[in-house]
Each structure stands twice: as structure tokens, then as C-alpha cells.
Input
Amino acid sequence: MNRLRTRFASVAALALAMPMLLANGYDDVDPRIGTGGEGHTFPGAVAPFGMVQLSPDTDTGCEIRECYGHAAGYRYDDPTIQGFSQTHFSGAGHSDLGDFLVMPAAGDTVPLEPGDPKQPGSGYRSRFSHADEVAQPGYYAVTLTDPGVRAEMTAGTRVGVHRYTFGADKAAHLLLDLRSSLYNYPGKILWSSLRMRPDGTVTGSRTTRGWAAGRQLYFAMRFSAPVKSHAFVSTEKDVKYKGFQAPGRGSDALAERSGQALVGRLDFGNLDAPLEVKVAISSVDEAGAIANLDSESGGFDAVRSATRGAWEKALSAVEIDAPAPMRRNLYTALYHTLIAPSVAGDVDGRYRGPDNAVHRADGFTFRSTFSLWDTFRAEHPLLTLVAPEQANSDMVRSLIASRKASPDGILPVWQFHGRETWTMIGYHAVPVIADAYMKGIGGFDANEALDAMVASATYAPYGGLGDYQKLGYVAIDREPEAASKTVEYAYDDWTIARMAEKLGRTDVAKRFYARAGNWRNSFDPKTGFVRARKSDGAFRTPFDPTAINYGSDYTEGNAWQYSWFVPQDQAALFRALGGDAKTVAKLDAMFEYDNSKLDYSHAEDIAGLIGQYIHGNEPSHHVAYLYAHAGQPWRTQARLKQIVDSQYKPTPDGLSGNDDLGQMSAWLMFTGLGFYPVTPGSLEYVIGRPFVDRAALNLPNGKRFTVVTKGLSNANLYVGNVLLNGKPLPRTYLRHDEIMAGGELRFVMQATPNRSWGKAASARPYSMSTAKR
Output
């Protein structure tokens, strides 16, 4: 782990006298949190929202289910490193990327195969020790034991830079393996190419049929020392995919080779200085990769310094004073939320869209890697507070641009490198756009955005939407995961209505407010659960609210989790459940459920269980806050303490489930501050309880919103009093405009519950059926 540079004595003394918190949090970030267990994060180098994610891969030869634990390429408990590739996902529940793997070799013999990790020396992979690792925002280093090479990584917005220090007595070589990929299998690499250009630049490409079919990616690579000799080798056997037509290639090369299984060997001889390797990528072409390579000047130290400055600035959006473990958890969480959606357009504005054609962004930077089913909940709402406003505008404009280029005419579902994967459910680009618009983020045509949202919500071939529009629910006998889809569509529809209402498009608003009530069509009053219905109107039987099976009634969950997903109208759901007391009893039953006789080992994403609450996956993330909707926020406070203590640690296995491109981290970031966006689009945050002594949001508008906690301790679980700008706050929610105006939110903690605060109906957070419009 990175050593925490403690400054407690001086900071504590100054904090008493100064209203400003001093540290920017850079030294408190540990990128190795989540690299063990099921966090699926990577420890390597990336700039804020950077296009290149340069990180070690410890195992790329896994297939299908075995790849799940290596979704980010690196797993903390692996003993060897296969190499360093240029692209990775941070915390995804599916593996892909791992493009253009580079590995140093030393001496006279240069193996071209990675070898068996159980047999040291059988290939080019190497053993390593965590004691030799350094992981910081924008920087990673490790000593490769077998070749005796110190490897360092840094990255700018569109470039990555490797630095390898070889022993002076051994010849230096690099392996460039275009066969290697995460979630690898025979035939995944449809085509690849390598070219040695006259100026010593190596360029190339590959097309893959992985998670996103037909993804094209190009690279350009330069070196601080001349390449003395090289070999581009094809190791093709029976992996040809005859249905693929190779892209055209140029002839400006000293040597080039193409095929489906290429590895390059680059020889540098004996070196008296470290070898630097600067790399850029492009989804467009090699010329785009070269332009990206030229867009950021300087060598390793210059790029590292610039990226450190960028991270210090990004992390300074939140200032945190908390006990050291929590401070490390929170700053690492903030770091993880600022990795994606990442830059996916070239420096000249070109990018490859979902139609596989090249487009040019006009006045914005195209971004991709949208894990929307996960990130609409808290990740994107957090970015509206902590990321520059233009970044949020870029993301919305990228979503709209993708819809224009989509062959289906709808917004992205789960997109990376501009390519659609059709993974997960819902049309959750819709709440991301609506929430941004409702919060005043501009830079895009709001009416065009609303048209795109409506198009996504009315595209009958997608996910049972034809039945949903006709029947008011998704029919399980014609579409899997119908119960989940019905309630998620209803929420998305509500956000369309909210945006349409603000735009004055009353016909659209009326239509989608009506659709927002469709959750009722899947609610079974006899069992008190959301259930799947058949096209004839009957609920599907048999019914077991604890059953979790992929492709069944629910998406990565069961009736216990999904029956609470009515964020737009929790008050109506609670009435359907029989009122506040019965709702609270059911919430308690969820958290206290005895799972001892249940086996969820077949379900990869079911982790972090507290009864039937599953924190390691997103459908549960808002549930602990629902006690506030029932007038008992003190129960929320106790549950949050239970969740934070059991689900987050400042260790490699410190995330109970996939970080999912920042959603797990965003949940902790909001919860640490004391409030959470249960219903993005409502312009409200439900108040929970803080886990910091003091924190400050340095907002994009130049204002400063401070959270102060008095009496924070393990014994003081409960909020005794809440003051906003010195005045008692009688309600259990904050409004977005109150945060953006700046000011102070003060919590006074105590050991016993305050059962009167937030009890009144007027004190409770937004619900559609009780709100005044």
C-alpha cells in the first residue's frame, strides 16, 4: 500500500485556527483499494477522465467465467505480471480491453509467449512483489523480478508513458503483444497490424469481437532510444475468422505485418539510461493516434508532473477531515469516480461512433465508457457537484451525439470506445440527461435532448418496450427480467416528464407522468413484492422472493431488492405496503433476513449481503435511505453505519462488490458527506448521517458548501440535530440549490435516536404523488 504521509499534528493545530482544510487529498488516494476481492479496479496510471488507462495485467488468458475476477486485468493476489496494456475498465462487472500489451525483456533470449504463471521462466511474464509497488493517481511502478527491470507508468489525457530501467549488463528488449486481451478466447482478435515507420515510430491496430463487437483501435508508439532491430511475428494457427474483411493499410513503413495473432520484438541493445515509451491510441486511425501522441509534449517526468497537477486540482473539489482510514477510503472513492466516462475522441475532434463510422465533435470532447445502469444512481449526480461543468456538458452532448449515430436511433445503454454492448437494462442515459438539465448544466440543446430521451423510451424492439407501452408492464413470457424492466422504465419515464415540464412541453410531460406510475402494474398487493407478470395479466408462479437467477424475473437481484425501486414515488409505494409502520417492518426484515439456507454462489454480482440487502450491487443502493421517507430517519442513520463499517475498507479487498465505473465509490462519497441522491432528477438529496469531522465541496460556480460534524464517534450513531446555515433544518432532505448557494450543513451527533426529527409528512423527501407541481 502507499504510505500515508501523516501530517496530523500540524494539520490538527491549523484546523482549529483556519476555516480552510489544507490537503488536496492526493497522498491519501490508494489506487490498489478494490484490486482484490470483487472490486475490479486497476492500480495503474490514468489522468482524470483519461483516454489511456496504463496498468499491469496479471492474467489475460482466462475465459468467460474465470475472467470475472480479472475484469480490470490486475488482481492483487496474483503472483505474476504478464505485461502492461493501455486500456482498462475501473470496476466493471465484465472484462474487455487490455489493448496493446507491452512487456520488457532483458538478455540474449527473448521469449515470445507469456508462459505458464505456475512455472517461472517459462515465458515473458514475470514475478513481482507488492513491497516493490508504488500506486498513486497518475503513477504506477513495480520491479519485475525475473528480467530485473524497474517498470514505471504515467499517463496524460491522451497519452501513456512507460519507463523501464534495465541493468547495464543486459540487452534491452520490448515485447509488443497484439494477441493479448482481457476476456480472451480463440478468434476474439479479428485482425491486427504492426508497422515500423521510417522515423522509428511503431504504429498498428486491431479489431476485436469482444464485449463490443467489431471494435477498432489504433496506436502509435515512440521510444527514447533507437530501435536497433526488430521482428514482427505471426503465430497464427487455427484462429482465422473468415467472415472479417481486414481494414486497409498504408505503405509508409520500413516493415509491416498483419494478421490475427501478432507479436512484435523490439531490440535496443545495452542502454545507459532508462527507456521511455510514449503511447497514444485512437479509435479512428493511425494518423489520429500519431496526432494524439504529439498533443502532449515532454517525456515521462513532464507528463507525470502535469498529471499529478491535474489530479490535485480534481481531488481538491472536496476537502476532507476525517479519521485516517475514512479519509483514505473517501479520497480513493473520489479518485475512482473521476476516471470515467473517459475521453474517447481524438485531439482533432474525430471519434468512432456506434455506427462504426467516423464523426467529428463540434465544440465538445467526445466521451465514452458509460455504465449507465450503475452510474445514473450516484456517480453522475456526484459529477454535477465535483467535476467542471463543461465535463458534464461534454457527457450529455456525447450521449446525444451517440444517439444520432445509432443505427437504432436510441441513446447509449452500456457503451465504451463509442461502441454499444447492449448490456444491462433500462434507458438510463435518460435520467443522466434530465438530472443534468434540471441542475442547470447547459451547453446542449435541451429540446433535442428531450427528443432523444423520448425516442429511447418509445423504441418498441428494445427490452420489451412494445408490451410496456401497450400493457403498462413488460411481459415475462415475452421478455426476461420483466419485473426489473417495468420498474426501471417507470422511473426513467418520470425523469422525462420532469424535463418536459420544465421545458414547457406539457403534452410530453402528461404522457410520461402517467407512464411513471406503471410500477403499480408489477406490484402484487397480496405478497407486497414487485413481481413479473405474463401477457395475460397473471403473475408468474411459482414465486420465491429470495430467488436469484440470470435471465429470470429480475436483473442481478430478486424481489427483495427490486420491490423498493420506486424512487419517483416512495410515498405511493409505502401506502401500497400498508403505511409507514408496515414499511419500516419490511425494511427491517430485509436487513435482518437469515440467509443461512440460501446459496448465491451461482450469481457473480451478488456480494456484500446484509440480510437481503446487497450492497455489492446497485439495486439496493438507495434502500437504507428509505426509512427517512417513512418518517424514521434515525433508522437510516443506524443502517448506514452498519453498511459503511462492513462494506468499505482501505485495503485491496476493501470494496464488497464491483466499483462499476465509480458507482460504489460515489455511494460512499455522498454517504460520507451525510446525504445521498435517492431520486436523481428530483433536485433533492436525502439526509443520512456523516462519516467526516468536516468536509467542504468547492463547487464549480466558485461557492463553497461545508459539512461540519460535532460529536462524531462510534458510540454516537445518531443525528441529534441538523442546522443549515445556523438554522435548524426541520426536513430530512437538502435541495440542490441550497448546496450550490454555498453555506454550512452542521450535524450534532448523539448516542440515542432523535425520534421526532423528520417524522412529520412535510419533512419527508420528494414523492411524485405528494409533491406540488
Notes: The CA atoms of residues 351 and 359 lie 5 Å apart. DSSP finds 19 helices and 37 strands in the chain.
